[in-house]
Amino acid sequence: MESQIVFLGTGGDSTVIGKQLRAGGGFVVQCNDLQLHIDPGPGSLKELKLNNINVRETTALLVSHAHTNHANDTKAIVEAMTLGGLDSRGVLVCNETSFSGTKEIAPIVNEFHKNCLERIIVIKPGQILGIGDVEITALPAYHSVPALGFKITTENFTLVYTGDTSYGENLYSFYKNADILVLNLVAPAGFKIEHNLNGEDAAKIIKKSKPRLAIITHFGIKMLNEDPMYQAREIHKKSGVTVIAAEDGLVINPKAYAIRKRQKRLSSF
C-alpha cells in the first residue's frame, strides 16, 4: 500500500455539512499496509467510494471527539469494515467520553458495534499506543467537550492532527517535530468562534511548531466565505511555512515532506 493522506471531507460546521458545501468524512492515512480513518463524520462511506478507498481495508478508526461532524459514521464504518460483525477485526481509538457518553452525549458505538471490533482502546492525552509499525500519541485539545489530537509516527514521516481545539500557548510544544501538521481551522483571521482555531491562531501555532507542511481543513461557513486558499497564503506569509488549504478529495504523498526516517518504538497492539 502506497503511503498517502486522502481528505474525504473538509467541512467543519453544521451549515457547511448540512448544505453539503463541503463533505464531512474526515481523512484517511495509508502507510505500512495500514489504513487509518480519522474522524469519520457524515457521509464517510460515500466519500470512501468516491476516492476509491476500500472500507474493508480499514485498520483503525481514530475519533477525536463525539461531535456529529467527527464521529457520526463510526458505526457505519465499523459495520462495513467487518461485514456486519461476520469478520471481527479492526481497532477503535477514542477518549472516554466518546466511548461511554454522558447525559448530553451519546456514545459513538453501541454493544453490537463494540463486538464487531477486535479491540477498542480508550486513550488519554499523553498516552501512546502502537498499531502495526505505527505509533499513535494522544494529544491534548481544548474544546467544548473532551477532545483529542493525534500524533501519528511512522518510519517514514510524522503527521500531527490538532483535532478541534481553541488556542493554547503550550499546544505548539506537542506539535513540534511534525513533518505534516493538519489543523482544523473553522474560522478565518478576524473572526473568533469559541473553542476553535482561527487564522491568527493557526499562524502562531505553525510559526512556533515549524512543520515542513501545514494543511488547513475543517472549514466553517465564515471560512468558506473568506476563501480558504487566501487564508492559507496569509498564514504562510506570517509563519514562513508552506500551507495548503485542503479540498475534498485532496491527496498528499507524506513521504515527500519527511525529514528523516522514523524508528519504530512500539510493537503491534
Question: What can you see in these coordinates?
Answer:
With 269 residues, the protein is of the alpha/beta class. The protein has one domain: Metallo-beta-lactamase, Chain A (4-Layer Sandwich). The protein is built from 10 helices and 14 strands. The chain has helices at residues 14-18, 44-50, 68-71, 74-82, 96-100, 111-116, 171-175, 199-209, 221-226, 228-239, and strands at residues 4-7, 27-31, 34-38, 60-62, 91-94, 119-122, 128-131, 134-141, 147-153, 158-161, 180-184, 213-217, 242-245, 251-252. The chain has a 7-stranded mixed β-sheet with strand order 6-5-4-3-2-1-14. The protein has a 7-stranded mixed β-sheet with strand order 7-8-9-10-11-12-13. The longest helix is centred in the last third of the chain and has 12 residues, at 228-239. The radius of gyration is 17 Å and the shape is globular. Mean pLDDT is 95; it is low at 260-269.
Keywords:
269 residues; alpha/beta; 10 helices; 14 strands
Going by helix content, strand content and strand pairing, the class is alpha/beta
Q: Give the CATH H-level superfamily.
A: Ribonuclease Z/Hydroxyacylglutathione hydrolase-like
How many alpha or pi helices? 10
What is the 3D form?
globular
For the biggest β-sheet, the strand order reads 6-5-4-3-2-1-14
Average pLDDT over all residues: 95
What CATH architecture label applies? 4-Layer Sandwich
Output the CATH class name.
Answer: Alpha Beta
Task: Write down the secondary-structure element order.
Answer: EHEEHEHHEHHEEEEEHEHEHHEE
> Largest sheet at a glance?
7 strands, mixed
Number of domains: 1
Task: Kindly state the number of beta strands.
Answer: 14
Strand content: 15-25%
Span between termini? 20 Å
Spans of at least 5 consecutive residues whose pLDDT stays below 50 are 260-269
Q: Helicity, in percent?
A: 25-40%
CATH fold field value: Metallo-beta-lactamase, Chain A
Rg, alpha carbons: 17 Å
